DNA sequence: GGGAATATTCCC
DNA sequence: GGGAATATTCCC
């Protein structure tokens, strides 16, 4: 299963431009590039449209059953559509499943990074309460910066230690279960052995 | 694949008591009831604890690989833990993966409906503006003091983590040597066994 | 442990 | 098509 579509990480919750397109976009792009993939009888399941400005799902049923689960954690056509809508794609034909997004074009995988989710602003709070977050640390003096820096490092180390701890704990759990199995195995072999010896007498 | 854990529907977004427990809770309950399910060699992977007031994941590795994907759309132990935390479960042993929730008890599937997600109130302030420790508004007027304090705490935590790591590593070393001994013992017993059998012929 | 982003589901 | 809940991931 293709699960190498992580977002690269590093800037969760920031409003900076991400280095990587959303996994959903990459997967959708790639499943189109995978291209020729055909159903059992040679017909295309999904493909770019003529000029590569959009794509067409020729067979939603096969697309759901065969294509979706290879890229996503589901096989529901509606969930796929929901994602398309979330990212601002438009259905451009009432006759067939054809979708477009200005920044989603054949040959332009690099442009995907321009596509963003339509975020349903929590809307409870007026936007002026949201700080823009960039450009607010511009004038810290050196000591603060220093503090901040070592603080940063400590947090980093801390985080890594916790990750390591989890891994070690899991290793230990495995050892415990392995030990149990070995002991059982041993006792079985010995039982077996004893039985045979007894039969010999 | 068991996908019959829909929430019954009808009241999305309402704050009324739902008729059905969250799918996550039902699945977790059911995978425990499925009960006896064992790994390849008869050891339990996961089970209720002694009095049914909580449950224990005996083998995180097998639990992730074998159990999780049969109930969820993933095989990550951490995602499972994340959900437990979301629903307010507590890890009640530092020595093993044992979790409890007041309303999650053996034989009380009906009580699951009482368990709700902790909803992260859509707080007005971005999280990075929140200071990490509780009760820091007391009187630490100077921000420096505050900095110092959290720095202190971080260092303390760091130290403890390293100590813990050492202990875990030592435990692992012991397990390794134990494993070796067991394997040797096993092979000896089997050799011995085989010799006798041969002499018999 | 938990905040927050993305993914999936469910419903209007 | 989209709002909103739950699920999964990623990060602190």
UniProtKB/TrEMBL annotation, chains A, B:
Entry annotated with the keyword DNA-binding: yes
Organism: Stylosanthes scabra
Gene3D superfamilies given in the database record: Winged helix-like DNA-binding domain superfamily/Winged helix DNA-binding domain (1.10.10.10)
Source organism superkingdom: Eukaryota
Protein name, as recorded: HSF-type DNA-binding domain-containing protein
Pfam families (alphabetical): HSF_DNA-bind
Domain (HSF-type DNA-binding) ranges: 68-92
Keyword set includes Ligase: no
Main location group: nucleus
Location of the region described as Disordered in the Swiss-Prot/TrEMBL record: 126-149
Biased composition (Low complexity): 134-149
Subcellular location: Nucleus
Family listed: Belongs to the HSF family.
Keywords per UniProt: DNA-binding, Nucleus, Stress response
């Amino acid at each position: 299963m293709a699960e190498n579509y992580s977002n690269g990480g590093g800037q969760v919750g920031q409003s900076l431009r991400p280095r990587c397109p959303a996994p959903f976009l990459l997967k959708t792009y790639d499943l189109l590039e995978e291209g020729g993939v055909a159903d059992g009888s040679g017909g295309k399941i999904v493909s770019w449209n003529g000029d590569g400005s959009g794509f067409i799902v020729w067979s939603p049923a096969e697309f759901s059953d065969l294509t979706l689960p290879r890229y996503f954690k589901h096989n529901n056509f509606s969930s796929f559509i929901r994602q398309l809508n979330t990212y601002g794609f438009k259905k451009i034909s009432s006759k067939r499943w054809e979708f477009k997004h200005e920044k989603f074009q054949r040959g332009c995988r690099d442009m995907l990074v321009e596509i963003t989710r339509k975020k349903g602003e929590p809307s409870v709070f007026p936007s002026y309460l949201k700080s823009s977050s960039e450009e607010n640390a511009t004038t810290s003096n050196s000591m603060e910066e220093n503090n901040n820096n070592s603080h940063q490092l400590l947090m980093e180390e801390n985080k890594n230690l916790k990750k390591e701890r989890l891994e070690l704990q899991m290793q230990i759990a495995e050892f415990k279960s392995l030990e149990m199995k070995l002991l059982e195995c041993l006792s079985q072999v010995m039982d077996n052995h004893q039985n045979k010896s007894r039969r010999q007498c």
